[in-house]
Amino acid sequence: MTAQTDARYDSPDAINGVLLVDKPIGPTSHDIVHRIRKTFGIPKVGHGGTLDPMASGLLIILLGKATKISDRFLASDKTYEGSMTFGSTTDTLDAMGETLETKPWQHITAEAIQHEMHQCRGDSMQMPPMTSAVKVAGVPLYKHARKGKTVERKARLIHVYRFDLLKYEPPVADFKLLCTKGTYVRVLAADIGQALNAGAHLSRLRRTRSGKLDIQDAIPFHQLVELPRNALAARVIPTKDFL
Fold it and tell me: Max Cα separation, the chain?
């Protein structure tokens, strides 16, 4: 890093710290980072854990010097609320993909769903889906998937603390999940659908907590980009608060 770049971070009007953003459905986490960097003229912007385009909720944005402590946020446990829809599977395991198969779902009960959710609790090895940003030999898996390729990948250790059924209005089950970093919720949904012989895909996902940080303290993205720079600075949590 050059002395000139350091000066930009240390100047009186530099913005360094953590910003909690309520990400909408649609844009990627990278899209959000790029828009913030461009809108506010902040030279270095990162995030503390990605969200898929179809997911909404808490996205931790790291500004300036705070990008150096990204590992603190990436390692945090995550809480989600979402929905899985039984009776159909997709190539991405979520609602953004193409339907692969449809099956009857009328035999599924709330009790059966909750049982399978409880079976997911604890440690397990989970295989990252091909439509994910996990890199193999430096190339994201989704780039292989776009070419119709399936490459060998390693299963990862995850831990599910809680997985609770909130409501079942067939064929849609609403849930709440507390898990470790790197857990693919759409894989859990697909696994439960397979176990219940109906198939399922993730149809909604919202991240509500990351570590001790809560969605209630986040600003909706569409409001954020309308703020003047001084109002943005007032919403930033200083880096020292996390050290």
Answer: 66
Would you tell me the crossing angle of helices 185-195 and 110-119 to the nearest 10 degrees? 120
Domains in the chain (CATH in brackets) are 3-75+212-242 (3.30.70), 78-210 (3.30.2350.10)
Structure tokens given for 203:
């149809």
Task: Express each pLDDT in 94-121 by its tens digit.
Answer: 999 999 999 999 999 999 999 999 999 9
Rounded CA-CA distance 165/177 in Å is 9
The Cα–Cα gap between 61 and 27 comes to 14
Separation in Å, CA 88 to CA 132, 173, 184, 189: 20, 13, 18, 11
Please identify every residue annotated as catalytic: 52
Instruction: Give the range among 4-18, 62-76, 180-194, 208-222 with minimum mean pLDDT.
Output: 4-18
Q: How much is the pTM?
A: 0.89
